[in-house]
Amino acid sequence: MNFSLNSQLLFLSFFISTIPLLSQDFGALQYRTVGPARGGRVTTVTGVAMQPGTFYLGASGGGVWKSEDYGTTWNNVSDGFFDTPSIGAIQVAENDPNIVYVGTGSDGLRSNVISGKGVYKSIDAGKTWEHIGLKNVGQIGAVEIDPTNSNVVWVAAIGNTFKSNPERGVFKTTDGGKNWEKVLSISDKVGFSDIELLPGNPNVIYAAAWKAERKPWTIISGGSADEGGIYKSINGGKDWIKLKNGLPKGTIGKIDLAVSAANSSMLYAIIEAPKGEQGLYKSIDQGKSFAHVSKDKRLVNRPFYYTNVELDPTNPDVIYSNANPLIKSEDGGKTWKEMKVPHGDNHDIWLNPNNPQLLIQANDGGANVSFNGGKSWSTQFNQPTAELYQVEVDDQYPYWLYAGQQDNYTTIAIPSFPPSAVQSVGSAWVINTGGCETGPAVPKPGNHNIVYANCKGRFGVFNKLTGVEKSHYVGASNIYGHNPKDLKYRFQRVAPIHVSPHNPDVVYHGSQFLHKTDSDGYSWETISPDLTAFEQDKQVISGSPITRDITGEEYYSTLYSIRESTLQEGLIWTGSNDGVVFITKDGGKTWKNVTPKKLPKGGRVESIAPSHHDVATAYIAVDRHLLGDSRPYLYKTTDYGANWTLLSTASNGIPSDYTTRVLREDPIQQGLLYAGTEYGMFVSFNDGTTWQSFQQNLPVTPITDIKIFRGDLVLSTMGRGFWILDNITTLRDKAIQNLASSPHLFKPDTTIRYRYPKIRAGNSFPKYPRTTVYMDYYLPEATKGLKLEIFNDKNEPLITMLSDSTQLKSSVKEVEDMNLSTTFRYVNQKLKAKKGLNRFEWGLHKKGPWHKDQKKRYKNGPMVLPGNYTVKLTVGDKTMEQDFVVLVDPRVKADGITKEILQKQHEMQEKVIALLTEARLLQDRLEKEVKKLETKDQKTDRNQLESLKKALQQLKNEKGAYPQQMLVSQISYIYNMVNGADQIIGKDVVERYQELMTDFTAIKNRVQL
């Protein structure tokens, strides 16, 4: 390279300035999952024959999960090990349940399918995993393990979903994955969907070839006779013959195979083929000849997505076909009956070979286990693997998250924080909000009970109060199944809805045109010409050469994103799913094509983000992986689209195969950007010049949408539900870019004083934190003796946190007098002092009453009042401080609770705490004195002893069941009354406090200690 001196100095300056930034560890900033708990698409399942309660599921975007209690609970076992969450096949070694192989890349080739990254192996039943190769094969249809040697493994590689690749074929390893050999291939366009080993002789192998590829506008499933069919080897894959006798002679599509464990001569195949040739084929001579047993259309319903046949391991005449619906035959495939499962769209089934009544089945709602052959099933509300297309938030307190969930019959909403008291936390707060699986669902600003919802282009207005949705479809024409070139309005399956940031009554909706309503859809106005590329050759009936499939997912040249500028009304940006960007500055009167000149054509403009800081600036994220190009495409313009800058170069932080799905600008800090990709999150502090991973504890899964709201980073994912990173204020501090040798305390965000509702204890999912002030601080090195203090607006100390327990003994003395010191000093391991960024969470609670049990001492204190506070952090001889604000809960304010009421309540809380502490301390001293006197000799003053015992009887409860509640318990009783809610303190409490104070004073005066 030949840099000029100036460019070298510029590069050096840039490099030096970004060193601290690029090395910053954000581990202290953790995401939390908020659900929903409802399962998403599961593409493969298996069980462990010798451990009947153990099962595995592989999700399309959620990774591998394991249950050891018959599906009662599921735990993810692939996080931290897998580079992709897309799972195609799971197999457990018959001779050792500790050995598990996983082939990645789902075989249901939807447009949103996530690419595979090869094969993983575990030798400890899923505790840890090792990547063992085949990274570039694409989607994997099947994995089979030699039952006599778990180091011999077969893989059927379908290939790259969106382009030809030479790695398609059948692969074999004989050394547990150290080396792989491609033992069968046809071409770079033909892969293999399934592979089966002959029971009793693993050297006999059957393989199903499949030509498959997707384009944004169509599905290719099948090819000529030479491009598909069933192959067989009898010598461990060295040689192969193609089975032909009795099978379709011409065009052939997807095939799935099953060999009977009860009679190895019997081989079944479900075959996608032209009308009359499709369905179930059966061989009774190991494939020498086949008979066409059934033409039932349900066997090949959407074959590219389904096509799975399994047999009862004890009866070759009992056959299961997974499609839509799940059907079963008990007479070798002649007749079929439907089986009821918790969800439709079925993908896989596994039956325990020792007890086929025990089985697990996979569908678009998750995985479900049955003990009785499918008569009843385990729940799917214990698998947080939801595939979400987008995220919107409303403006209530707490705010709720909205999205379309794949294969859910309606859009959904869930809360960011517990809004009420319920008993079933995992599912009780998942509510329906209209539309259907694709979404979006957009709550109306100012009235969250109204939700604008979509279902594949059908616009609805959902009312949460009534649970009813009004239908106002643009054009009022059913577009399902049409050739798109014949449609007046082309709506993509995920048709965008956008509410104007300037007028909540103005809603935009996109076909190939931009539509506008100000009457909740009663009437629509088309305010644009065709805003897409509209190439005629892409306007075709989807599904070739065999199966027609037109669900709207393949409608090409439609709008995919719409955004109006928050800074200028009528300045609207649109992006299409064929790669075109338009802008209007006058509310739709005139339009200009501003597509980036260097952007390769045809990609999907997944997101547009007009700047919150500069009216001429906007950002876009473009996804071209459906065209076989997985590179990230992020662009920025500062001149209304006249010129664009690529923000995702080959070397500025986002890997070259991380397809970009969404790009958002921080609404507070200019230049702070967030990008969601196919495999996780990234952040930029310099307006996209450089990027760094912002993944932390987030699982590897596609980020489909991002919202920044009330200081939180809110995400939707295609396989792991919603996630929230609470309080990103620290990222907005410019100091984050220059952290080096000095400690730094970041300013905490304003915090709303929510009271946590009473919900069922013990729930670990979803993750709902207690009300918390997040305090972030940076330490250039691990530090001993860290001290954090919080003061109120009168500079009165509330709490002191220490990182080192030795300081408690040496330099901090806790005051325990009858006046109850307002300073709360205690040691808490949550005050971390590690090198780098740290986060402390203060739950807004002051010191509670004294308790004899040190684990309970000073706990359960009252919440601090709304107001201004200060946090001080002392690191060595340096002290830093930041102010922050605590606000009243808007719901409490709406209920008529004023600051004056809260102040009076707080004063009563302090009085009761003081009384309860003094009473408990007196009880403790009396107990110690009584014990001391009882151990003395006969000189003990019996009158004094009896007097103390009598006082104790008045203070403490007797032991045993249902004792009479004495004075300390009575004081504790009213403490709970004054501390449970924001309220006016009732007259009875005030009077009762005076009674208890009088009673306690009398006891104290009688006892001389």
Automatic annotation (TrEMBL):
InterPro entries assigned: Sialidase_sf, Sortilin_N, VPS10-sortilin, WD40/YVTN_repeat-like_dom_sf
Keywords, in A-Z order: Coiled coil, Repeat
Alphabetical list of Pfam families matching this protein: Sortilin-Vps10 (PF15902)
Superkingdom to which the source organism belongs: Bacteria
Coiled coil: 916-965
Sortilin N-terminal domain span: 64-194
Record protein name field: Sortilin N-terminal domain-containing protein
Protein source organism: Aquimarina spongiae
